[in-house]
Amino acid sequence: MRRLTTIAVLLAVMLSGCITIEQTIKIRSDDTLVANYSYSFPSNQREAVTAASASFSPYGSFMDEESLKAFFANRNAEMTSYRLSERSGITNVQIIVIAKDAAKAINAGAFGAMRLVAKDNLMRLEVPMPAKEERDKHRARAAKLMPGASVSLTLLAPHNIAISNGKQLSDEMCSWHFTSGGKDSFFDAPEILFAQWKQ
User: Fold this and answer.
1) What is the bridge-based pairing of β-strands 150-156 and 20-27?
2) What is the mean pLDDT of each run of 10 residues along the chain (199 residues)?
3) CA 183, CA 181: separation in Å to the nearest integer?
4) Beta-ladder partners of 170
5) What CA–CA distance (Å, rounded) separates 80 from 78?
6) Domain ranges, ordered by start, for the chain
7) What is the pTM of this model?
8) From CA 80, how far away is CA 72, in angstroms rounded?
9) Which of 189, 150, 198 is nearest to 167 (CA)?
């Protein structure tokens, strides 16, 4: 199965419907992890978004609760909550995933191509993005058809973050936020998102 990041799925779903993807990864000092996912999109685009996510997501469609459970269970993680709701024409999916060993789950592919590496007393989280050439193929179409699509990743580290290429929100928190166009365009994002802290 392809090891794509959750963020990479935006390439597919932004072309099938206006979607907001939010992911928060919290790594605790005892090396456990909690991940929160939030997907939001117009309900009339549900079929297209479901099909796109099933084709490009590392875990299949985020609309398939049972597939998600099996995916995480096979990668040292556990999905503890899945909630699908609809209100005022908007479909929302909320997912919570936990892991007893953050590094094992991340490096086993529980979160796609995301990886957590220890070196010289430092921990480094890396999130490879789709190749720029691949993103450029869809730039014009996405900016025109899906001006409201957005994706964000927030990291809560167990210790002060020494360096990252995200926006620093606090000593232990940083985030990356991208849209389908404008100054925060997904298509101009770094090839690797990263954050580093002392163990």
Assistant:
1) parallel
2) 46 59 95 95 80 63 87 95 95 96 95 90 90 71 63 95 96 91 76 93
3) 7
4) 173
5) 6
6) 7-198
7) 0.85
8) 10
9) 189
